[in-house]
Automatic annotation (TrEMBL):
<protein>
    <submittedName>
        <fullName>TECT2 protein</fullName>
    </submittedName>
</protein>
<feature type="domain" description="Tectonic-1-3">
    <location>
        <begin position="241"/>
        <end position="383"/>
    </location>
</feature>
<dbReference type="GO" id="GO:1904491">
    <property type="term" value="P:protein localization to ciliary transition zone"/>
</dbReference>
<comment type="similarity">
    <text>Belongs to the tectonic family.</text>
</comment>
<keyword id="KW-0325">Glycoprotein</keyword>
<feature type="domain" description="Tectonic-1-3">
    <location>
        <begin position="397"/>
        <end position="578"/>
    </location>
</feature>
<dbReference type="Pfam" id="PF25752">
    <property type="entry name" value="DUF1619_N"/>
</dbReference>
<dbReference type="InterPro" id="IPR011677">
    <property type="entry name" value="TCTN1-3_dom"/>
</dbReference>
<keyword id="KW-0732">Signal</keyword>
<comment type="subunit">
    <text>Part of the tectonic-like complex (also named B9 complex).</text>
</comment>
<keyword id="KW-0970">Cilium biogenesis/degradation</keyword>
<dbReference type="GO" id="GO:0036038">
    <property type="term" value="C:MKS complex"/>
</dbReference>
<dbReference type="InterPro" id="IPR040354">
    <property type="entry name" value="TCTN1-3"/>
</dbReference>
<dbReference type="GO" id="GO:0007224">
    <property type="term" value="P:smoothened signaling pathway"/>
</dbReference>
<dbReference type="GO" id="GO:0060271">
    <property type="term" value="P:cilium assembly"/>
</dbReference>
<dbReference type="Pfam" id="PF07773">
    <property type="entry name" value="TCTN_DUF1619"/>
</dbReference>
<dbReference type="InterPro" id="IPR057724">
    <property type="entry name" value="TCTN1-3_N"/>
</dbReference>
Amino acid sequence: MSGQRVNSFFLGNSSGVNFSIIVSPRDAETGKLQLANCSRSKRAGDWNLDVTPGVNTSKVTVSLSRTLELCLPNATECCPSPLCVVETLQVLACRGSVMLAQLLIQAEIFANSSFAGNVSENATIIPNQAFKPLGSCPCNLTAGACDVRCCCDLECTPDLQQLFSASCFTGVFGGDVNPPFDQLCSSQSMEYTPEWFPFLCVQSSLDNTPFLGYFYHGSTSTPKIPSFKIPLQTSPGKPFTGYREGDPIITEEDEYFTVPQQSMAGQCVGNAPVAYLHNFDVKCLTSLESYKEGLPHDVRINTGTADFIQQNVVYRAVTDRGKFITESENLAAEVLCQNVTFAEHYKFTWKDKNIEQINVTVFLGSLCDGEILTQRFTVEFLSLNSTDGEELFENPGYQAGKPVRAANLNASDPLGSLNIWQPAGRGLCASASYRPVLFGVDSYSGCILEVDINEDCSFLRGNVTEKLNALIQATHIGKRDNSSYTDLNDWVEIIRLDPFSSNVSTGGLKGICPDIPANLNIRIIFAKVGAVQGVPQQQILAVQISYSTILWQFQCGIGCKNTLSILPITASVQFIEVPAQPPPPVTRYQKIYAEFDCNRNEVCWPQLLYPVTRFYTGEPYSQCLAKGLFLAFLVLLAAITSNPWFSKLWNR
């Protein structure tokens, strides 16, 4: 046993059984234990024996009654050494003089390492490291022995220190933990000391040393973990002041209101936040295996003034699944199907910087295992003043991401369109659909036109021109998003530049056609002409359409057995921002100063005196100035001495 108490059990009926304990010393000659008898008691020395009888089992407890504290000076009844008790015990169970059972216990008990008494006033006190170094002798690495060359080691006797007193460790490692610093006036290091050192040195005691500056107890701040929450949160001290264009819409839980959207890579992101006043219409492909539900429709939305509104949700069933199921594998007789969301249409009604109402239409349908679903998500912002589905914007300027308004003012129906291609399938022009040009979004799209080797070049030019002109069904473009069809001043006429013709003859060769207008270039010039409630008002100033021609040549495949070749035709849209007002004309002073501008002329007259200016950093400025003044003095002296009147004065 190694503790003060140990338990054991006696099996059987304990009635009439006497238990006793003895301390059995070993025989000095033989090393064997002395024989025990049944005439002992339940106490032997510092040991006690307790028996708790039971029905068929009795619990036997052996305990030590002395303390296990180490002896202090002049103390008694304590442990003189760490190994306090080393004894052999015997526990006997006898009925009369007959021994029924015997238990042998070897006790090795150490003294307690904890101390519960009063702390002595002479205990070691660890100093504050901010004012006094903790280790006064860093080279003292070995406990109880002298470290060679460590002259601050108190365990080194004077005789041992004489052996290495001439080669003791120096510096902080050798015990000089508080050396005088160079800025101290009493510093003995006078090497490279400037003449003004006595005027700027530091008068301080060695207790205030810069070496202790490593211990700095300043205020600490816990790092803030970034989260997907808006940095401007609603709080009693800082109320929510409404949304601005592009701000993410916030829910009641101070999280983003998300709807699946397309990323820059073309993939759909399920947790993309909805931006205020930004419309979008996206399609995402999914299957039953990868289908995930979006944000619940019972989430309340922050209106912009710390109030919350509920979504008005209408559920409808999809009648024509063929518009959404784009691919279907061979289905087995029994397949797993699930009712999922086919489309979600969000309509936000807004006024100023607040959201007034949210209407959501959800189309549900059955999606089976092995089918590919094309989900559609649309978000549309409608002003509170809109009537009959036509929105009347409070900000008359264009907003980024909204379609550019086009009109055909020469026709009875002025409604026009400005589109680019959205290819599908093989990318042929015959199967390509259109998508509108969005304001502020530079676009580039195209399609493929199949051309026969015997194609007439004039017919090919007309066919390509017809395909390109089909994208622009308009004569004018609206200056603003709320341009009226009845006001001609609200529109700018489209400037059309005809394709360049070089009149190059192919000499009757087949498969070669020059001057094919394969590229359509749409340049839209706009400017910021003001702001409405802090939202920039952007206006279109001009629109230009031009064509880039190429030399088409039939591409011969393997063996030239195919008589069809391809002709890629493209359309690009570029938005160019210009200042709203023309820049002020150049003044006469600016025209004159341009002659001395070092960035515009090869000869830079202002740098004639470059060495005496502050831009020259090859030498100190004081030396450059002194040399410059001395040079000017020599020039002045030469001018004076070369004057005729100086020679006459000198002769006199």
